[in-house]
Amino acid sequence: MQHCGTAAQLASLGFSSPSSSSSSSSVGSNDDPGTDSSTFYGKRRTPALPIPESSEDSEGSSSDDEIIINVKTGQDEIYSDSSEQSEAEDEGQDEGQSGSESRRLLWKTPARVHYPAPVWIGQLPSVSEVLTPTEYFRQMFTPECLRHIVEQSNLYSVQKDVNSPLNCSEKEFEQFIGVAFHMSIYGIPATRMCWQAGTRIDKIADVMPMRRWEQIKANIHFNDNSLDLSPSNPCRDPLFKLRPLLNFALDTMNNIPMDEHLSVDEQIIPYKGKSRLKLYNPSKPHKWGYKVYLLCDSKGIAYNFEFHTGKIQPVIGMPDLGASSNIVLRVASIVPQGQNFKLYHDNWFTSTGLEMEMAKKKIYCLGTVRANRLKGCSLKSDKDLKTIGRGAFDEKVATFEGGQLIAGKWQDNRTVTMLSTFAGAYPTCKVKRWDRKLSKVTDVQCPSSVVTYNKNMGGVDLMDSLIALYRTKIRSRKWYLRIFFHLMDMLCVNAWLLYRRDYHACVQKGKEELGLREFKSSVAEVLCKQGSSSQLKRGRPSSESSDMRRQKKRETKPQQEVRKDGMAHWPYYSDKQGRCKKHGCTGQTRQPLGTDKSCHSSMKSECASQQLQGSSLSSSAAACPLVQSHRPLGHRGANVGQVRLRSLSHQGPKPVNAAIVS
Hints:
This protein is α+β, with helices and mostly antiparallel strands. The chain has helices spanning 7-13, 37-40, 85-104, 133-140, 143-160, 170-186, 202-205, 210-219, 243-254, 323-331, 352-359, 382-388, 448-456, 459-469, 479-505, 516-529, 546-554, 560-563, 605-613, 625-628; strands at 68-73, 76-81, 261-270, 279-280, 288-297, 302-307, 341-345, 363-368, 393-400, 403-411, 415-420, 429-435, 440-446, 571-574, 578-579, 588-589, 593-596.
């Protein structure tokens, strides 16, 4: 892990330079360091400028191997993550609550016994048919949530300016979300490009005007500001502006039937704007952003989440196991008890107290663990395992009321320490590893617990990668809009994963499985078009059809190099009037027109004939005024994208002159 800043910068803030460490959600070649834990994780250092006890972030509650340092920079607060104080603090909390139990544990070397995993009692509901993509999405984004957002957005617009209400309907807001989904699929860098002439996207620009879309975006709201507490009030909810939206999302996700294998991990919502909830962790791909703790299954379906807002409180009615373990208790509180679910987590969350507490609920855990959290467990040292060679491992077992703890250490490229209540080292299996000395791939002995962990731990990472494929990247100064669009992406990915689960449960012949892009595009198209009616505009009705008017707007001005290249400037005839393009001529006529398809220039017949006779060009460009006079397009009186060329004859559509033909 990289340092959070230079030594001089940390010293100026009153902190000493933190030591580095790393962790991974999957174990293998680079999971645990091969050094002694007391020297690797370092000792707790007292900062020169102590953080007050009233601070929200005085407790370590950050990511893998991290500390939260509160650095005030004007209006914004930045949280910088490192590895020392967080571990020391959650260690101290573990000792305060479960230290006595850890000391009473008697670790023994077991015989070569295979520990069978408890049989899962629950089951997924049977599915008879596969729904449409929009039906799956509307199960996640309910009509009640849509109605609440529309009401609060309209209220917020009136609170801002009573003279300009938003007057947004539910159907119009669905179109807003559909447009946002289309933007995420196309991946455009700026939203206004969808309406601009050169980069216009019909699926977006035909749904609603740009100004209306931006007006909805500027007024989107989720809670009544008049009910908010003052920022100085300690009881104020940091996520007050989003709380109703989060509650609606949690209600739908908590009701999804759960699979057997679940995992708890963190997720980063990328964001670099001003927000006191923003975190900084230099070891992550997205160093700045909001942190969310997720509960997912091995397929990536999310069932619960919780935002990191500062100090992590213990679960009511549960023991305080420290910041990291309390997160698992809070997020996994919705898991049904007594059904033998399997829960996986990495070494920042794992502790003996957590696994014993979950085992009492018949929820069995498996995860990597830091060596200093195994009190009294004398596994072989890293040096001894390295001497034996790759594939060596050691295992200890401790019994407690309600089950047993199985701790093991395995030597790969580095040592990996595991702690579980249901999985041991046996039966071992073989994994493929590259041997540098032999210059070939060899088989290495691997404990069963490591294979089980690697197979089922990556659910949160899978969800994060699927969201990143088609992330909605709409810029805004409002900090909560980034979270709103992230939740919409998460609900859409969740809907697609549920669709896949039902599709594989009842395979329908003749129907091909939709990928995420096709699924999200289908949802966006239905949201944009379903139930929409073409409203009559004020004014005199036009004789042109809507398709003709739309085609008229699509024509764009050619670039300068194309307009003046002297190639393919052939006139064609139209019945509409225009204005002469010749420099200095202001004449107009209502005679039939000829429009140059190459450069869309216009010219009166007399001017065109004079220019053609005096031209030395022998190509079709002789009649084009833009080859002779470099006057730019877009002059007064010309239609944008449709500047027309006057007919070179007063007698209607017939060849202008033989000299035009090259």
